[in-house]
Amino acid sequence: MSTKYLVYTALMTAIIAILGFIPAIPLPIMPVPIVLQNIGIFLAAILLGRKYGTLSIIVLLLLVATGLPLLSGGRGGIGVFAGPSAGFLFMYPVITYLIGLVRDLYFKKINFVVLLITTIVIGVVLLDIGGTLLMGIMTNIPMSKSVLLSFVFMPADIIKAVIASFIGNIMLNHSQFKQLLK
């Protein structure tokens, strides 16, 4: 790992942590709020790819596990990995890797449509269904109801996917940014 990519990884971790300072939107029907940190998760995969994007998420989760309040609402500590949002936290590295994998495969011909479809299918659908299924297990909600609850997150997460794909497409197709990644 070069120093340059170490800095990029740390910078992306910091950006996601900063997004955690934006207050979460609580939902009355479930214990997991809507957060803006997903934009950072999506951007880590889009901008850094599978290796360094996933590494930035793992670093963030390790910092959270040590007690730093980097998640929305000032949450942190090992207890968040046993709470209702644990499923989403465990899915973050998985979706980052998968989105980053598609980004790496299509890096030479990346465009907004590829990024958006990938981010919606993996980042929205997989994250929301996987996260709510694990939330259901943690909170004793039946699986069928958990899957239905996942649809509550999808409209806001689709907007986040559009924002991340738009930003990622502009940056990945900018000549100066491409030079930074070489």
From TrEMBL:
It holds the Pfam family BioY. Its main location: membrane. One of its GO terms (molecular function) is biotin transmembrane transporter activity. Keywords: Cell membrane, Membrane, Transmembrane, Transmembrane helix, Transport. It is a multi-pass membrane protein. It comes from the Bacteria. GO terms for cellular component: plasma membrane. The keyword Ribosomal protein does not apply. The chain crosses the membrane at residues 5-25, 31-48, 55-72, 78-100, 112-135, 147-172. It is found in: Cell membrane. Belongs to the BioY family. This is Biotin transporter. It comes from Staphylococcus nepalensis. The gene is bioY.
